[in-house]
Structure formats: structure tokens, C-alpha cells
Specification:
Chain lengths: 288, 240
Amino acid sequence: MWPPPPAPEPGSSPLSTESPENSCCCENSGLPGLMTTPSETRSSRMRVLGLGWRGPTGTEPGPGAQAAYRLRFRTCWLWLVGVPDTCLSMGLELYLDLLSASCRAVYIFARKNNIPFDFQFVDLLKGHHHSKEYIKINPLKKVPSLKDGKFVLSESVAILFYLCRKYSTPSHWYPPDLHTRARVDEFMAWQHTAIQMPMSRILWIKMLIPMITGEEVPDEKVEQMLAEVKNSMQLFEEKFLQDKMFISGDHISLADVVALVEMMQRGQELEGRPGTGRRTQHFSVSQP
Amino acid sequence: MGLELYLDLISQPCRAVYIFAKKNGIPFELRTVELLKGQHHSDAFAQVNPLKKVPALKDGDFTLAESVAILLYLCRKYEVPDHWYPQDLQARARVDEYLAWQHTALRNSCTRAMWQKMMFPVFLGEQVPPETLASTLAELERCLQLLEDKFLKDQDFLAGPHISVADLVAITELMHPVSAGCQVFKSRPKLAAWRQRVEAAVGKDLFQEAHAVVMKAKDLPPADSAIKEKLKPSVQVLLQ
């Protein structure tokens, strides 16, 4: 049995008003329902999630940058905050580390649809995904994984489809119309190699490997991957999003969740792209 | 105009779509897009698929890219037998799981193995460093082990007792390094037995028909310099 993570800190609030010095507003605000780690690791998580101060170490964010980060965090949080905390429940278990974009997609979808689950934290930075215990759950050694009684499932796309079907979520998440559903499938297939793979590599090379080993990776490697991602973002805007509100049309679907979590991983490269800015706003205002 | 499938049977995902459509008696017009002549970069094809890849589908005004999306579309539109994409929640999840995993795992290593072992030296006249090829073949071995241990296990097919789209996607991938002379099935009796079952379920004639082009790829004459110029930028990534 996977060890249960520690409970969230009492008195934590999702929305703080003023940032403490030298830190982002998010640093001391645990996300209710998010099983937490010590605050130092949590603040580094927030940085990696693109929600923290990303300036040079030892410098303070200026007032403008602080406001921008608060807006980004609140935009994301407002979208979630309407959901009651139904995280803790036996039965469905989700093995996650929110450092990973694909875990975030599954987490957001489950929370948004009030699907009760046990959050089982798999600490990527500590290499828990390579542990003997975790390999028994997912021999592919990746997160996210799902465990539903004896049934174990890996791959975030498969998990999202499974949750949709089992919990009969509203149809806009995976529309029944033949063509609209095909559009979602098309994006879900394309994004594996076009977005998820290079973004995941950037995360490891730019942040996680240096954090774990203390060694920097040559810039050329990252530049190449960033070029790949930029090309994919261009295709995303021209082919998948176009002038629509969402990938499949007028309503949000699984495809949008999967797309957005990847983009929020390395926010600064994607700012200035009007399509992605527009969709982030739509996330914050379109949900009841 | 009815259903059109834009394919080049040298490509693994095109073979999966081809076999599926033929096996299920789905009527379509085959539109060949010759990858080795760079036809996927043409403006005409970009109208069908701006991602410039095969396979692509055109059904009236509706166009669709990505083999997995195309297979699921055909499943639903033509109401094929349930086993191809089962209704059962967990069985379907198994198919989805394989179809998701293979993009960045088996697909990657099979394409690289075939190109590094055969297409670069034979077709493009470019030698691949031995350590690069060795690393690719090691990665292929790792994926094959996962295919056996995590997906196939002791089942007859990847998602359970019956053939599904997952098996078509997988078998067409494995035939890629086979066409380059990699002995994928020789030391893996479990996979070899699974291959026999898939071929029998699909029909040997259809299976061979779908693989005729790729199995002859080793006999291709070397590309001329114009083709090399055209293809090199997009295939360089397969050397990494």
C-alpha cells in the first residue's frame, strides 16, 4: 500500500493578498486538497509549475511581476476553487506528482468533475517512480497511474477517457458527435510527440536534472527543444485552435485540459501568443 | 466523393489504417502520398493535412490526421465488430493505454531502427555511427520487453482475448525493423506466437499485401541528390 501523504497545513489559504518578500504569493498558500510536501519543496514546485518567481536567485520580484504572478495563479485557482474538497476517499487511487503536466491534467479533470479519489503522491524528485513498490503498480515507471480496486491503468490520455466513461461526466468533455470527437482524438494523439515529449524533456533538462544533480545542461540542447515546441505551438494555433473558443469548438473538452497543462509548465515561452492567452482566460471565466 | 485515405504503405501507421479498412470492408479511395519523393510536403497535400503527415483521411469536407484518431473514427462510423475497440470499460482502457504509450515508445524506436539500419545507408547513402545504431537497437529491445511484459503478458492479444486496433498498430510497427533485417521475433517466442495470431486474424494475404512495399524497401535504388536535399532536413532528427 502506497504511504499516504501528510495532511495540508492548517490555516492555509489559496488566495493571499500580499506577497512576502523574496517570494511569490503562492509560496505559503497550500492548495486545499493538494497533499503537500514541506513548504520549501512546495515553493520549488510552484516555481516549476510556472506559478512562482522565476527571476535570478536572490532577487525580488518587482511589483509588476508580483501582480502578474498573482493574476496567473488566481486565474488557474479560480477555475478550481468552486470544486468542493472531495479528494479523500477510498476506492479510486490516483498516483500523481503535480510537477508532471500529465498528472495535472488528470488531477484537474477529476477535481472538476467531483470524482472522489485518494491522492497518492509519487515524488519524482526523489525517484519514487523507480521504486520497487511503484514498479509493481506501473512497470512503465511513469506518472500518472490509476488504481481502481484491482484494475491498474497508466497513460494520462487513457486515464482521462476511463474517468469520463466510468463517471459519466458531461458530454462536452468527450463529445459524442462523430466529427467533434475525432477532433479531440486527433489532438490527443498529436500532442504526445509534438508537445508532451519536448516539454517534458525541457522540464527535466532545464529544471529537474540541475535540481537533482546540481549540473547545468548545455543551452543548445534546450534551444533545440524550444524551437520544436515553438513550431508545435504555431501548428496548434493554426490547425487545432484556429478562431474557435476551444479545440473542439464552443465547449471545453479533454483536449483543452491536456493542452493547457503543458503550456503552463513553461509559461514564459508562450506568453505573447494571443491564442494561448485567450484560452487561459476562457478557462477562468467559462466554468460555473 | 466518398471516403479517401491518403497513405504510403512504407509508413507503419498507414499500414494499420489500410489493414483495418480492408479487413472491415470499408470502401475507400486510396490516395498514395509518396514519402520518399517528398509528396507530403506538397501544397495540395497540406490542404488535406496541414501537419504534412500520413495517414490522413478525407470524408466529404471533413479531414482528419493521426492514425489513432482515424482508426477510432472508422470504428465508430462503420460500426465494426466490438472487439476492435471494445465497449467494456476496462478492455477499452487497455486499448487506449497501448495506443497512448506507443507514440513515444515503440513507434519511436521502430522508426529509428529501420532508418538507421537501412534507409540512411541504403537510400540516402549516409553511414550511421555504430554507437548510435547500437543505442537505438538497445532502446528497441527495451520497448519489446515492455510490450511482452506489460501489455501482452499471457494474453492472446494486447488488450485481452481478442484482436483490437492496438494489435494492428503494434504489429505494423514491429514489421518496420523486420524490413531492415532486425530479428525482432527470433528470440521472442511469445511475440512470435502473437504475430502468428494477428496475421491469422487479419488474413495472411491482406497482411502480406499491406507489407509488400516496406519489405521491398531494402532493394530501393539510392536516392538522387534532389530527393536527398528534399528529405534530409526532416529525417535528420531520426539520427538522434
